[in-house]
Amino acid sequence: MQIGVFSNGNRNNKVAKTTYDEDLAEIVLADRLGMKEAWISEHGTFLAHYTPDQLPSADLLICKAAALTAQIKMGPAIRPLPFFHPLQVATEAAVCDHLTGGRYFAGFGVGINVANNTQRGPIPADPRLMFREAVDLILKAWEAPGPFDWNGRSGKAEAGTSFQSR
């Protein structure tokens, strides 16, 4: 059996730094104990939860944790794709993979209550459609040998847009 850790990024601390430090200490300990994975929940878009210790960017914490650990693999649980441009997510995940020395797992999802969450602006289309299109675009960006065209319908990557993959 392989054992890992999961952090939901919410410890009810008065300041975010305290929570981040506690999460990092747990990941470092998990690494020393030989645990194989750490999944860091990204919470920064919930209107119902105004605690100051939420983690709106798991990838940043993962990169710092990678510098403090030797073998544990880490990933966001999850990156809510309807809130972000897919090419930004693809770029950040690729950078995290490099900075962690290949110990990065990409974790994508729709998110909770995305359609009713306006904290990061209105969602321009059905969140599930946006998720599916975002995954397709992210994979294409990672795999394309050169420039490519994208014909999206969801509003984050407009139809007929051309991209450079490298």
Range of helix content: 25-40%
Task: State the low-pLDDT regions, or none.
Answer: none
Question: Radius of gyration, Cα only, in angstroms?
Answer: 17 Å
Number of helices: 4
State the order of secondary-structure elements, H for helix, E for strand. EHEHEEHEHEE
Globally, the shape reads globular
Task: Count all strands and give the number.
Answer: 7
Largest sheet: 3 strands, parallel
* Overall pLDDT confidence: 87
Strand order in the largest sheet: 1-2-3
Tell me the structural class: alpha/beta
Give the distance, in angstroms, between the N- and C-terminal Cα atoms. 39 Å
Strand content: 5-15%
How do the helices and strands line up, and which of them pair or pack?
Blueprint: E1 4-7, H1 16-32, E2 37-40, H2 58-68, E3 73-76, E4 79-80, H3 86-99, E5 108-109, H4 127-143, E6 148-150, E7 161-163
Parallel strand pairs: 1-2, 2-3, 4-5
Antiparallel strand pairs: 6-7
Helix pairs in contact: 1-2, 2-3, 3-4
